[in-house]
Amino acid sequence: MPAVDLVAYVHRLTRIRDAALYDLLSDGLTHWGPHEENTALLLEAQAYKLELAWSDRITDPDDPKLKRERAQAKKAGIKPPPHPLIPPVAHRPDSLAEQRLREYIDAVECYRAGPAPEVKHLSSREFDRAMGLTAEHV
After folding, report:
1. pLDDT tens digits for 28-45?
2. Burial letters for 31-66: b for 16+ Cβ neighbours within 10 Å, e otherwise?
C-alpha cells in the first residue's frame, strides 16, 4: 500500500466516531456530553442524599462526644461551607474524573482548615525582647 493511501485511510479512521482511533485521539471524551455530565451530577446528588440520610439516622444528637466535637469546631472558628460539598462518585472519563476529584479535594481542604490565624505584628524591639536578644534595663 502506498504511503499516500495509508495516510488517507488513517485520516478517514480519525473521522469515524465509533472507531477506536477516534476515541483514543479524543481522550475518551467523544461520547461524553452535557447529558452524560448532568446524569453524573444527578447520581452524585442522590448518593450524597442517601449518605446524609443514613448519617442522620445513625447519629445521636445528644451524644456527648458529638457535642464536644461541635463545640471544638465552633471554638476553632470552623464553619460548614455555604453549599454541600458533594464527592464525585459517578463514573466519568479519566481526565474529567481527575479534574472533579481535584476540585473536590481543594474545596474540602479549604473548609477543613478553618479561618486563617490572626497575624500578630510585633515591633523589632518587642521581637528582640520576646526572643531574649536584649537585656532589660532597670
Report:
1. 676 788 899 999 999 999
2. ebeeebeeebeeebeeeeeeeeeeeeeeeeeeeeee
